[in-house]
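step: validate -> pass
step: tokenize input -> pass
step: predict -> running
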Amino acid sequence: MQRFVTKGAKWVGDVRGLSHRCYSQSSLASKNDDDMIISPRMPHFDYSPPPYNGPTGDEILSKRREFLSPSMFYFYEKPLNLVHGKMQYLFDNNGRRYLDAFGGIATVSCGHCHPDVVEAIVNQTKRLQHSTILYLNHAITDFAEALASKLPGDLKVVFFTNSGTEANELAIMMARLYTGCHDIISLRNAYHGNAAATMSTTGQSIWKFNVVQSGVHHAINPDPYRGVFGSDGEKYAKDVEDLIQFGTSGRVAAFLSEAIQGVGGIVELAPGYLPAAYSTVRKAGGLCIADEVQAGFARTGSHFWGFENQGVVPDIVTMAKGIGNGIPLGAVVTTPEIAQVLTHHNYFNTFGGNPVCTAAGLAVLKVIEKEKLQENAHVVGSYLKERLMTIKDKHEIVGDVRGRGLLLGVELVTDRKLKTPARVETLHIMDKMKNMGVLVGKGGFRGNVFRITPPLCFTKEDADFLVDVMDCALSKI
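step: predict -> pass
step: emit ->
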């Protein structure tokens, strides 16, 4: 058995139960980590970033504290100064490479600085950065046509926005106008944005301010891990019917939900929930809105859209994040009939449909198809989930592994029976993983879920490295 002694002989680690691939004395964690631990070897990547000559992280942090909103927060005890990205990897100001398993919050779909997307952006920027939709430009129509081709049924009219919040705001307004009703049903634990209507539909107090929020009813969350009915989706859906009968006039404007809650901690809705909920809402005259801001664009692997995993067809679909691989872009797609409601008065968005953004969006769709990233998300995501399940078997602190494709969550608890959130431990492990070269996200109302949403070019070697690093970090708890 090979052993390594850390700095100051604080502890002795051995490689039993870890990976056969990785360990040597040269692979110890960076020396700025007080508790140096054995670190797996990162997969080879034949790329070196250009030299960085900009300000230090401390200088940036100082300016950020002085000139930016105090509401802005950051990960890690010592925040990272990331200056370069290439595909599934990020580089800090010292040139150190990190495996990006967060993807800018499920936003980087094709990979950081994907050459095809960069080329589309640069070429369009050289020709025309902005005009307005008051003039004709083929970039917006080409992308709208391509995007509509990826959606089922009569979902073929596209409105472009700048973010997921804007997309959800527009969808809610359209539903209220179309139905003549005000009441919206969304889910507890949901997150749909931070503007007026979207904050109302968000179902977590940590994302809501004390401002007027009206006309929204939050149904019981169909959470297979923490929910009262386990994985019985139809039982949860009965609460939607009860809300309509006892909390509204009996008629509603819409039901809004994700198929897999992202900010909520990668909670995949219980099987059979959306078909039952959609049926109930439509009987009450409401529209069904699918929030695909995080689950869309092939991320779930098995399907292009998250709602398809539950076998439903919404009336309105909202999207953002992965749509532009990091470019500020969102969209609402609906039917021609519903789209007509915005013609009754003027509706306009200055930057919605910007030619640079829509050129980027079309390039993203082409890359997803050309490089078969949906298939990759399914194959690599399934493999990664299986490997994460072995982590759960090994470490009691791992209460649940969930999600699909490359939209995965790992929930940490201090007591599996009571499901007590391991908040402090989650932060500690995240820092350990960062020190070993892996960046993951954090989410869930209780702040105890690792969000694993990497670029869709993630490989099995990357998955192995991520799991081995997590295993090492968990072994220190």
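step: describe -> Residues 373-394 form the longest helix (22 residues).
step: cleanup -> pass
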